[in-house]
């Protein structure tokens, strides 16, 4: 009887020791998981902070880029370029203001044939100069033909968020991709609203006949 009791006690002690070992292992795993989870959260927070800082720096870079373009353009104005007959000078650039009317694609090709391109407006001064020379709407070198809403200049540079923009905003706001006249929409930009302010941009059907501005 004594041997049986001793054996039972020994088995009970062994079971308790096994349970303690399992408990210790479980506790260690829980602690390890909590440590790993905390490290993961810290790493995620650090990554988010770095992403926010990167976005802030990107925004600052775009602002500085716009300022540089305006300063560079202003410096160029102090210099003078002799342009061929029919072209007008502003700084180191020459501009051609057409009297004939073509659609946007024809206007683009015409400017290329003249050794230039449809005008790319990078500053308030260039915008002011362009609209001071016109009395009606003119095509400029901006379009979203490849992807709706992604406006690109004819030099394949996108119209970025921080770039200068002069869209018509006196209602309805432009660009509005109006499809009543052309089911394909309005994918080409012009300087000058057809019924009002000639100092603003509008989007229009690329098939419309308009005067245009070349630059070189």
UniProtKB/TrEMBL annotation:
InterPro entries named among the record's database cross-references: C-type_lectin-like (IPR001304), C-type_lectin-like/link_sf (IPR016186), C-type_lectin/snaclec_domain (IPR050111), C-type_lectin_CS (IPR018378), CD209-like_CTLD (IPR033989), CTDL_fold (IPR016187)
SMART domains per record: CLECT
Keyword flag Iron: no
CDD domains named among the record's database cross-references: CLECT_DC-SIGN_like
Disulfide bond in keyword set: yes
GO MF annotations, alphabetized: carbohydrate binding
Signal peptide coordinates: 1-18
Domain C-type lectin: 90-215
Keywords: Disulfide bond, Lectin, Signal
Protein name as annotated: C-type lectin domain-containing protein
Source organism phylogeny: Eukaryota, Metazoa, Chordata, Craniata, Vertebrata
